[in-house]
Amino acid sequence: MITLYDLKAKGPIGTWSPNPWKARYVLNYKKLPYRIIYTEFPDIEVVSKEAGIPPYGKKPDGVTPVYTSPAIIDDATGTALSDSYKIADYLDKAYPDTPKVFPTGSEALQAAFYAQFAPTLSALVPFVLPKVPAMLNERSAEYYVRTRAAIFGGKPLDQWELVGEERSEAWGKMKAGFDKLDGWLSKGSGPFFMGDVVTFADFVAAAALQGLKIIFGENSEEWKDITEWNNGRWDRLLKDLEEYAGVDVEN
Amino acid sequence: MITLYDLKAKGPIGTWSPNPWKARYVLNYKKLPYRIIYTEFPDIEVVSKEAGIPPYGKKPDGVTPVYTSPAIIDDATGTALSDSYKIADYLDKAYPDTPKVFPTGSEALQAAFYAQFAPTLSALVPFVLPKVPAMLNERSAEYYVRTRAAIFGGKPLDQWELVGEERSEAWGKMKAGFDKLDGWLSKGSGPFFMGDVVTFADFVAAAALQGLKIIFGENSEEWKDITEWNNGRWDRLLKDLEEYAGVDVEN
């Protein structure tokens, strides 16, 4: 049995964070059975250590380990690891009879795509991060607010909100990121990054979209905007991948 | 017949600029016959206009057209276009019986890779640009020095040379870019970006390497360094693609 470590949200909200979404998509796509453990932000480190999950990497000090979600433990192989990319890579290799999310021959280009994905959409940060605490239980919200302010130069999250022209301009930059993705996608025959084959690249984009949808709210102006960009490509992508979305809302 | 517009270098130096190298690799790979017209930098615009080649894009003023090399004219279809990426894409579509440099299904990921390639190796700029004028005839050299200074904040090219620790640090950044490429390549089974199939991504990397090799000089310390990075991957890539390199040195 595979255990997926996801992040715990408030009340009935299920998976909300783009990174665990990627792992969930991949597990569902491969039809691998798994159970989910939802963890509060301040507990990720202790839960990971107890479960024998190695750290994702190190803090900028080069010493302090960083533990993150998602992580998985696979009892069948005794493997424990974090990082959605590494998890996908592991599952491709450990379960060669399941459909590959990194089709043979595409691995290097998938890696290049993945390295560029977050920077391409970095303009979403000022819109998204301030809205995250409202989705979390109090302990996680407090932790999130404190640690994110520290990462982003000390500015408290509740002072991030942009208004007026500044907001329009920042939103335009966010759209420009999606335009870039759309430009790449338009080179192929679609609907997916590799044509009619679903791959990790699609789950990366869809996970970001799932995050935006739940963080902004399905009925928000922001989400409505996004669904109208690039000829409705983004909502369509979520629909095309819906069979692999399988959200467990009992957390 | 296809005509390739390349850049003219001094004396016996053939193709030296990475961008025309890409087009040349693609034409050779597809075994399409072509002739070459070598153009001096200050003549690119007038030669392009006379030949009916549309501009590559616009200057930052949003109005003035920019003409670049490489460009091709294909008499068979009456097509004239510039930009190595567009040329490759055109040739894939116009000559569907030749091997594709953008294999079906890889187009979007190739585009994502290509968008990231130059930024990944941007640390080569301070090493490479000051060495370019020495390879050009006087008119082109004067033009190059003048226009590059204008693009890069007015600093004359001959004042770009780094020394001592500053140079080591900048060289380390250049290596870090190659390490990144190597990291992506290492995800696949190699030797090429798509495994054992040659694609545009390989020509993009090889064209940059060809440029570095000729600009630094085959016997330079710099080129020796590069050939030793990443377990000799880069010189090996050039050798693996040698049959498509076909340099015409009579310019």
TrEMBL record, chains A, B:
Pfam entry (one): GST_N_2
Record-level GO cellular component terms: cytoplasm
UniProt superkingdom: Eukaryota
Chain ranges of the GST N-terminal domain: 7-99
PROSITE patterns according to UniProt: GST_NTER
Listed PANTHER family: GLUTATHIONE S-TRANSFERASE OMEGA (PTHR43968:SF6), PTHR43968
Protein's name according to its UniProt entry: GST N-terminal domain-containing protein
Taxonomic lineage: Eukaryota, Fungi, Dikarya, Basidiomycota, Agaricomycotina
